[in-house]
Every structure is written in C-alpha cells, then in structure tokens.
Specification:
single chain, 231 residues, mainly alpha, 10 helices, 0% strand
Length: 231
C-alpha cells in the first residue's frame, strides 16, 4: 500500500495527470469561490439588523462560515469534478506500470454521473451530520474518529468502483470489493487522510485515483499479479 501511494505521487509529473490536476483545481476552486461570495453577498443584502456595521459583520461571518463549509466539503466537490478525468488518469498509470494489459473498457458516462451524484449526496450528508461534533470541547475528540471511519468506507468503495469497472463487469467488481473490504477500507482511510492535509488535499482526488489503480491491480482476483507492478 505504501508502494502504491509512492508510485501515485511519483507520477504527478505525467503530462496527462498534470492536465487533470489543473482542470480539477480550477473548476473546484472557482465553484468554491462563487459559493463563498454568494453567501457573503446574501447576508449583506438581507440587512438582518438594519444597522450597517452589524450587517457587514454578519456578512463577514457568513462568508467565513461558508468558507469553512466549502473547505470541509472540498473533497466531495473535487471528487465530483474528478469523474471527468478518471480514464485519463487511470490510462496514464496503466500505460506506465501495466503496459501488458489490453485496452480497458471504460464505464459509461451515466455510470460515472450516477456514481458521482451518489458520492456527493452520501458524503455530504454524513460529513455534515458529524460536523457539529467539531465545535464541542468533549465531542470534538470523537470527530476525527468518525470522520476517518465514514470517509474511509465511502472513499475506499467509491474510488474502487470508478477504477475497477474499466477491467471487470459490475458483478465481479462487487464480489472483489466484498472479498477485500478491509484492505479497501484502509485504502479509503489513506485517501481520507490525503484530503485533510493542506495543499495535498487540492490534488488528493487525482492521487487517490492513481493510488487505487495500483491497489486494484494488486488484489487477488483482479487479473494482475502484484509482482508485475513496475516503478
């Protein structure tokens, strides 16, 4: 697993992966900026108190709150945008490390779209559900535990299910996922950790995709022996 993560980072210089990183960042940051500006402007226009400096203070606090929520949910947004670049990143990894493999059969556009919507809704719901724990002195000790458990399960499953269908039918993908659920959970925790590290979290979806390609090909039953992993 450490080797797979190392290989994922070492391939960030690949032209196709750089292209995916650039567009993912530009789109995700633009959307986040629009949401923050929109929240700030909305509070300013509402004039809740009727007192100018109070309303501006409320607008500022609203913008800060929106920025915090946007930061917390950035993994969801970035992962959504990533779906447009899944095949591009996976192709780059497989062509470099698994050149003997036949040409993959990417999942349909609708599969990626539905998977993306599902991930956004589920991750958004559970992360907002546990978010209040971060603000209470005692409960905030539990927040990181719940965060990594929930996101480990969700991210491990989701990234696996966007990579594996390129090489297997959906029934086989589900069977392989159930067989290796523990390893995929740990992989998901690693991905969730990437999303919490400043600056690294900006490229985490791309790294996670490359990482999961290596994890997939290292699983028994995927059709690619681990010994064929090349640096």
């Amino acid at each position: 697993m450490i080797e797979a993560l190392s290989l994922a980072f070492r391939q960030l210089g690949d032209r196709r992966i750089r292209h995916a990183i650039l567009w993912t960042l530009l789109i995700a940051l633009t959307i986040s900026a629009i949401l923050i500006a929109g929240a700030t402007a909305t509070f300013a226009l509402l004039e809740l108190s009727g007192i100018v400096f109070v309303d501006w203070a409320l607008a500022l606090l609203g913008g800060i709150a929106a920025a915090f929520v946007a930061w917390m949910l950035f993994p969801v947004l970035a992962a959504e945008i990533l779906y447009a670049f899944v095949d591009q990143v996976a192709d780059a990894v497989e062509e470099r490390h698994y050149p003997h493999l036949p040409k993959p059969t990417p999942a349909s556009f609708w599969h990626y779209t539905i998977a993306g919507i599902r991930l956004a809704l589920v991750m958004g719901f559970f992360n907002l559900l546990i978010l209040p724990l971060a603000f209470f002195p005692v409960a905030n000790v539990l927040y990181p535990i719940f965060y990594f458990i929930i996101n480990g399960i969700l991210l491990g499953r989701e990234f696996f299910e966007i990579v594996a269908p390129r090489r297997m039918d959906f029934k086989a993908v589900r069977q392989l996922r159930r067989k290796h659920r523990i390893k995929l959970f740990v992989s998901g925790v690693v991905i969730a950790l990437l999303f919490t590290i400043p600056l690294i979290n900006l490229i985490a979806p791309i790294v996670a995709t490359a990482f999961m390609v290596h994890i997939f090909h290292g699983l028994g039953g995927s059709g690619t022996p681990r010994s064929e992993l090349r640096s």
